[in-house]
Structures are given as C-alpha cells and as structure tokens.
Amino acid sequence: MSYNLKGLRLDDAAAVAVVRLAQVDVLGVQEPPRGPLRRVRLRRWAARTGLRVVVDDFASRTTALLARPDSVVERPRAHRLPWRMGWTRRGFVTARVDGVEVVVLHLSLHPDERARHLDLVEAHLDRVDGPIVVVGDLNEPPGGPAWQRLARYAQDTAGDGAAPTFRAPSPRHRIDVVLASPELAASRSRVLRDAAARRASDHLPLVVDLEPVRATSA
After folding, report:
1. Domain ranges across the chain
2. What are the backbone dihedrals phi and psi of residue 101, each rounded to the nearest 5 degrees, phi first?
3. Which of 66, 144, 203, 217 satisfies CB 3.0 to 4.6 Å to 4 for a cystine?
C-alpha cells in the first residue's frame, strides 16, 4: 500500500480502519505525523493497524515504512535529501522486506527539485540487487519525468485506466504509485474509495497485490 496520511490530522481512526481492512503486508507512508512526538504517534498508530514501523527517522522527514510484525527486514535506512530554505524538508526510506527492496518516496511539488532528488534516489537504486518496489507520492501525473526515470527500475503496476488518487473525496489526479521491477507481477491493483478512505486523508490509498514471477521451463 502507498498512503499519504496527511500527518494523521484529518481522521486517524478512519486511517486505521482503511489499513486494517486492506490487510496489507507493507505500507509506504507519505506525510507521517510531524512535530516532537511524531515517532511516538506513528508507532501508536501503526500498532492499531497491526503493523510495525520499520523506518521512521528524522532524516526520512516526509516518508516512513511499516510492515507486518513477522516480516524479515534488512538494511532499513532513512536518506536525507538536500533542502532549500522555505521549501519542505524531504527524505526517502529504504529497506529489504522479505527479500524485496522497498523504496518510499514523497517527491517535491517543484519539478527542478524533483529532478535533483531523483538523482540521489537513482544512485541508491543502481546499487540494488534483486526485486524492487517503489511506492510513493510523485506529485506529477503519469508520463512525467519522474515516472519515466523510475521506469528504468520498476514499472507502473496500476495499468491503463487506473483510478485517480488525489484529491479525496473527489479525486482527479493520479500521483500515487506502486512500481515493481520485472521480478514481480501485479495480480490486482485497486484504489480504496470507501467512506473511511475519503475521511482519513486528502489522498486515497493505492493497494497492489504482488507475486514473484515464476520461471518457465523451456
């Protein structure tokens, strides 16, 4: 699941209900709670969803990663991104979860900054060996430069005619993604649009079921 939580400022109980109903294994968060108690708030919220926080460091800023308590997590890391005075401080998080490299992004509203930050994201992706899933809020529509650059590593799983995710409750824009490398296949993709999802955030969550691609014998 990719989910922009709007800092849990709208309806955190509704956001809990959304995640519990979806029964997700991995949750990439954008806009987790901010402020001095941010880590405590996110951990308490995660416990209510049945997940645990894998990465939520000060450096990660607008991103966090949650997973099932029994997930095998390796190399969790928060990456700080360069900041310009007056703009939002951003970061991205990475971890290998059950053998899959998961990258959570919340890209800038400014195209030039998106491009600069993607240079650092790509530097990480270039070092990854094995399957990759990129989840996040790209802040640009399909076909934009960020989508094209990330397509070198992982492809859009939502397919043609995918539903918009922003702005709830009457979304018109598709800016939230789950991208997967060729080692993984999407069996189902859906945007959650029930009443709880429309109350919980200004983004609707995107959920994708992924499975390893099985090699076929010649």
Report:
1. 2-211
2. -75, 120
3. 203
